[in-house]
Write a structure and sequence with these properties.
With 182 residues, the chain is an all-alpha fold. Helix content is 64%, strand content 0%. The termini are far apart.
């Protein structure tokens, strides 16, 4: 009985720590940005500091476009092969977050954003998340791509009708008839 109570207490403490971190980050990141602006601005001046912010935003949007299209292409290739693109989806989300961080004015967020554009950093994030996420769903339409453990082969999906099975006149009793057919 004591073991379950201590495990429950630890779970509550873990949840408290996770939730108390968010307000701290909401306060710490803007304060770090302000401090960085003051330090950089005092060293190189106001206009060069503002210029750096604009240049990092432009560079971030270019990197987002280049790497984003690459990830979309890899996701399509994986799905066409009948696989589940979990790794590429996580990489795509990290690239999207990197783009948002780079478009946000500030040197701390820019540094975090540029780090997320590095493939080795994203791969480390994927290896951390790999066993913590579950991907559900059918990875490819039925009848396309090789079979996999996620999608057993269901055979042909084509329904072939003969002329006896189909007619153009329709059934006047059917609720699926066209409204102008009486």
């Amino acid at each position: 009985m004591e073991r379950s109570e201590s495990a429950e207490t630890r779970n509550k403490a873990n949840r408290f720590v996770r939730f108390s971190l968010v307000p701290f980050l909401l306060l710490a990141i803007p304060l770090a940005e302000i401090a960085t602006f003051v330090v950089v601005g005092s060293q190189i001046g106001v206009f060069p500091t503002l210029g750096l912010v604009v240049v990092t935003a432009i560079a971030g949007s270019i990197l987002l476009r280049i790497q984003g299209f690459g990830v979309v292409r890899r996701i399509q290739e994986t799905m066409n092969e009948g696989g589940v693109p979990g790794r590429d989806l996580v990489h795509g989300m990290m690239i999207m977050v990197a783009g948002v961080l780079l478009l946000t004015p500030g040197f701390v967020t820019d540094t975090l954003g540029f780090l997320l554009f590095v493939p080795a950093i994203r791969e480390a994030g994927w290896s951390f998340l790999r066993n913590r996420i579950v991907i559900l769903g059918d990875p490819a339409p039925h009848g396309t791509g090789p079979t996999s453990a996620y999608r057993p082969d269901r055979g042909a999906q084509t329904i072939d009708l003969s002329e006896d099975d189909y007619s153009h006149t329709g059934n006047h009793e059917s609720p699926w008839r066209k409204p102008d057919q009486d």
